[in-house]
Design a protein that fits this description.
12 helices; TIM Barrel; two-stranded antiparallel ribbon; 278 residues
């Protein structure tokens, strides 16, 4: 069993336990109490490359990242620094996250928020909506074709955006088969946890023009962000580098190249050639 298998198995057990504690019908009844919509996808397609700044306490590969991290302080720093959106890890066994972190981020920041977890059941999308997420991550490698299609449709019915995450060519084929509009390319192999930042450029050529593309894992400096912008990536998700930074606000500013720390950051260079079609 790979680490991904272990995390997915833990997610399924967590969902089962939560459904016993809070039935789906009770969650659905709370959907009417959702706050003002914060469109997530729109935040990723502003001029220049958008930064999704992530809050996570630990990871299976890195261990404890920022002991004693205060989510209120961190997400406020990300917002002041000019991040376009937030990502909040809610998975508990491997990443130390919780729905409490999601709710705290929603209270403290006005940015749109991605719930990052191993989403394996529609129940988790209802949780995401009720607890303040504007988007959710769907990891293709963790799901069957039927599960992926069901979760994508459920998210749309709940007005939740999605990042459909791929790791290789087969994942990408499956993401395109459901016509995913936001595709995340994770440079980390979730079976070995090794990182190859060349994965994004390799898979990008097979993504049709018109899709929104998010690069994930392995980024920690401005030069890398400029390279992503040149090849036509729309957004980058960064967690560990920001969580380890002595000053997360300044780290965000340096990454987006915006000394004035506004969210309307300028285009670095003209976009590259239009991406090819699959």
């Amino acid at each position: 069993m790979t680490k991904l298998d272990e995390l997915v198995s833990a997610a399924r057990e967590t969902v089962r336990r939560r459904q016993e504690e809070v039935p789906l019908a009770k969650l659905q009844a709370q959907l009417t109490e959702r706050g003002q919509e914060r469109p997530f996808k729109e935040a990723l397609v502003a001029p220049g490359i958008s930064l999704i700044a992530e809050f996570k306490r630990r990871s299976p590969s890195a261990g404890e990242i920022r002991p004693g991290a205060d989510i209120d302080e961190i997400v406020a720093a990300y917002e002041r620094g000019g991040a376009s959106a937030l990502s909040v890890l809610t998975e508990g066994s491997g990443f130390g996250g919780s729905l409490d972190d999601l709710r705290a981020a929603r209270r403290r920041s006005e940015l749109p928020i991605l719930r990052k977890d191993f989403v394996v059941d529609p129940y988790q999308l209802h949780e995401a909506a009720v607890h303040g997420a504007d988007a959710a991550l769907l990891i293709v490698a963790a799901l069957s074709d039927d599960e992926l299609a069901e979760l994508y449709a459920t998210a749309r019915s709940l007005d939740i955006d999605t990042i459909v995450e791929v790791h290789d060519e087969r994942d990408l084929e499956r993401a395109l088969a459901i016509d995913a509009d936001v595709i995340g390319i994770n440079n980390r192999d979730l079976t070995t946890f090794t990182v190859d930042i060349g994965t994004t450029e390799r898979l990008l050529t097979n993504i049709p023009a018109g899709k929104t593309v998010v690069a994930e894992s392995g980024y920690d400096n401005r030069e890398q962000i400029e390279d992503l912008d040149r090849i036509g990536v729309d957004a980058v998700l960064i967690g560990t580098a920001l969580m380890r930074a002595p000053d997360p606000e300044q780290a965000v500013r340096e990454l987006i190249g915006d000394e004035m720390a506004t969210r309307e950051h300028p285009i670095i260079e003209p976009r590259g050639e239009q991406r090819g079609t699959a």
